[in-house]
Design a protein that fits this description.
The complex is a heterodimer. By secondary structure, chain A is of the alpha/beta class. Helices cover 38% and strands 21% of the residues of chain A. Chain A has helices at residues 5-21, 49-52, 76-92, 107-117, 130-134, 162-173, and strands at residues 40-43, 55-58, 66-71, 97-103, 123-126, 142-146, 152-157. Chain A is elongated. Chain B is built from six helices and no strands. Chain B is elongated, with a radius of gyration of 38 Å.
Chain lengths: 174, 174
């Protein structure tokens, strides 16, 4: 067996290289990327009902690209992400819909959060996190980038940076 | 100085100590009994049937480290159990319910990934390893046997004759 040591070295080297090339498991790639976004309709949180109606969600057809942001008031990264999302909403609201989904939360806490950060982009309430499971979420915050055809282009797990948000917007608006 | 008076006091103190010890032991035994009466973490709470937990134990809790959806009390795991319960009530099979989660999370959600594609290697590698080990052992034994034969045939007739004479020689008495 030792006579074939170059083959063993090549085999082990190949295995090592293959292992290093595999996608980072921490990136949490979604199986839904490239597939139609699961449709839903949920009650809007109270401050948005006047402007958007009692319910909102993702239908089979979307009017414009959507950034679906799953958040909760108890989530610390959501607190740093919220002002950034609000700024982008003000800047791009005619081109992109930023839709928040409040999950695993108390409605009163969610309302306090909205008031605290002055969020004007609409958010629906999903106390049990059912829609989060429909989208295969791992935690909060998570953002799904949905194009005009209602197809999921990307999933971002964790807090968004300004550069990442810009990148997703470019991807969805091109 | 009344020495006799001391005896009842000492006896009294001993009795008090004994009483305190008995009380402490009784309290401790009650506490341990209460502790034992607590359900084990994996015992299903009364809200879902054991079958729900049976299926949930085969699924990962997405937000937990090394805990199944049947063991975790995270909100997402509770919601997953609720979904399983609802789908069982709708008459769906275990395979259909597992498929529901696989469609949203991929094979990652299963504790026992299916034996196909890349995971097929994970299932086959122990068998391949065992086969290689058996082959190596067989090759080694064949070589040892061959060497034993060669060694016996390599001994010259002269040497064998000398050895036989040595063996047949009667021991000399001193």
């Amino acid at each position: 067996m030792l006579r074939f040591w170059p083959i063993w070295v090549l085999l082990l080297g190949g295995l090592f290289y293959w292992g290093m090339q595999r996608p980072n498991p921490n990136e949490l790639q979604s199986v839904l990327v490239g597939k139609p976004a699961p449709a839903f309709s949920l009650p809007l949180l109270e401050p948005y009902r006047e402007a958007f109606g009692p319910e909102m969600g993702i239908g089979e057809r979307v009017e414009k690209p959507v950034l679906l942001n799953i958040w909760a008031s108890w989530c610390i990264p959501c607190r740093t992400e919220a002002p950034l999302l609000e700024r982008f909403h003000q800047q791009y609201k005619d081109q992109v819909l930023i839709l928040g989904v409040n999950v695993q939360d108390k409605e009163t806490d969610a309302l306090k959060f909205i008031q605290q950060y002055g969020l004007t982009f609409p958010s629906v309430y999903d106390g049990r996190g059912r829609i989060g499971i429909e989208y295969g979420y791992y935690g909060v915050p998570e953002t799904f980038v949905i194009d005009r055809n209602g197809t999921i282009l990307a999933r971002h797990a964790g807090e968004l940076s300004e550069a990442q948000l810009q990148g997703y917007l470019r991807q969805v608006l091109q | 100085m009344k020495v006799e008076g001391l005896v009842p006091r000492v006896q009294g103190q001993t009795l008090w100590k004994q009483a305190v010890w008995v009380l402490l032991l009784a309290v401790a035994s009650q506490l341990s009994a209460i502790g034992l009466a607590q359900p084990a973490p994996s015992t299903p709470p009364p809200d879902f049937s054991p079958r729900v937990f049976e299926i949930a134990r085969e699924l990962r809790c997405p937000v937990c480290q090394g805990e199944s959806a049947g063991e975790s009390n995270a909100g997402i795991a509770v919601e997953m159990r609720r979904i399983i319960d609802e789908q069982l009530a709708q008459g769906k099979t275990e395979a259909e319910i597992r498929q529901f989660f696989v469609q949203r999370y991929g094979d990652w959600i299963l504790y026992e990934p299916p034996a196909r594609g890349l995971t097929l290697w994970v299932w086959l590698s122990p068998l391949i390893g065992l086969g290689l080990l058996g082959f190596g052992l067989w090759r080694y034994l064949v070589r040892v046997k061959a060497r034993a034969h060669t060694t016996a045939s390599d001994v010259s007739d002269e040497e064998i004759a000398r050895l036989e004479s040595e063996l047949n020689r009667t021991p000399e008495r001193s």
